[in-house]
Amino acid sequence: MSLNQCLKGKEYPEVTLTVERDQVRQFADAIREDAAIFRDPQSGKGAGYAEQVAPPTFVTKVQIMSSAEVVLDQDLGLNYMMVVHGEQEFEWRRPLVVGDVLTAVPRIADIYAKGPNEFLVIEAEVKDSSGETVAVSRTTLLSRGTAER
Amino acid sequence: MGRRPLAGIQVGDEIPSLSKVIKREDVKAYADSSGDQNPLHQDDNFARSVGFPGIIAHGMFTMAHLVKAVTDWAGDPGALKRMKVQFRAVVFMNETIVAKGRVESLDPMTKRARLSVWVEVDRAGERQLPIKNGEAEIELI
């Protein structure tokens, strides 16, 4: 079964994430990022930031929430068992810090086939509470062997 | 630790490679802290049912290590403006991943450096590339 091309451009309900101190520390622990700026507010401030800084890939949390909404869409026709994460791109406009309240509207940026596989591109522009874009995520999921021959 | 100046960097420079042994407890902690609870990264029986010998690390877990290699070199996590990667090989528990990068171009006007970045793992004497063809854009001072 192939993916529903009509969903190209579809937007999904907004996801939201507050950057919390404990979550940042746990994430830093998991990736063995031991620099002090990821662990306490004073070090963050000492390095010129407003607060304790989140590791750049902390934004993955928003990427995962965004991708989950899309892959669970029954109209898309995606078999999750056939999916692998093919590519990931992030743009960062500024580092995320503790206290940031982030929102993103996940969107299907593209659906295309190449050989036997199909590709689903999910884009999420991550904004802070002032509406400013702080990061952009582009996720390419690969659906193995589902293209129509 | 401060942000690295562009002066003193040359095209072709390699960043220090950064190695890490993949530990099951780290992958579990990553599943919990990232929110990606796919059983492929936690349940050996499930992983075997889809053709792997055991659980594999999240691609984003490997990317996080590559980002650390780049931001350690840049001296500031805020220096990283963009990264794009392709996931091309899986990573198993207790394997050693090695993050690497090389300066491909420098723009003195914008103080930006473009790097090619990748992650290697040695499996039975053969070099695999869990992350291939990566690109990173860094803002230096």
What does this protein structure show overall?
The complex is a heterodimer of chains A (149) and B (141). By secondary structure, chain A is of the alpha+beta class. Chain A is 19% helix and 32% strand. Chain A has a domain of 104 residues: Roll (Thiol Ester Dehydrase, Chain A), CATH 3.10.129.10. Chain A has 3 helices and 6 strands. The longest helix of chain A is centred in the middle third of the chain and has 12 residues. Chain A is elongated. The termini of chain A are close together. By secondary structure, chain B is an alpha+beta fold. Chain B has a domain of 89 residues: Thiol Ester Dehydrase, Chain A, CATH 3.10.129. Helices cover 23% and strands 35% of the residues of chain B. The mean pLDDT of chain B is 95. The chains are: A alpha+beta (149), B alpha+beta (141). At the A-B interface, helix 1, helix 3 and strand 2 of A face helix 1, helix 3 and strand 2 of B. Strand 2 of chain A pairs antiparallel with strand 2 of chain B.
Keywords:
heterodimer, A: 149 residues, alpha+beta, Thiol Ester Dehydrase, Chain A, B: 141 residues, 5-stranded antiparallel β-sheet
Lay out the secondary structure.
The complex is a heterodimer of chains A (149) and B (141).
Chain A: E1 15-18, H1 21-30, H2 41-46, H3 60-71, E2 83-92, E3 101-104, E4 107-114, E5 117-127, E6 133-143
Chain B: E1 18-21, H1 24-34, H2 44-49, H3 59-74, E2 80-87, E3 96-107, E4 112-123, E5 126-139
Antiparallel strand pairs in B: 1-3, 2-5, 3-4, 4-5
Looking at how many chains there are and whether they match, the oligomeric state comes to heterodimer
Through-space gap between termini of chain B: 13 Å
Low-confidence stretches of chain B: none
Helix share of residues of chain A? 10-25%
Topology of chain B as a string of helices (H) and strands (E): EHHHEEEE
Task: Please bin the fraction of helical residues of chain B.
Answer: 10-25%
- What can be said about the biggest beta sheet of chain B? 5 strands, antiparallel
> Strand sequence of the main sheet of chain B, in spatial order?
1-3-4-5-2
Provide the CATH topology of one domain in chain A.
Thiol Ester Dehydrase, Chain A
What distance lies between the first and last C-alpha atoms of chain A, to the nearest angstrom? 11 Å
Per CATH, the class of one domain in chain A reads Alpha Beta
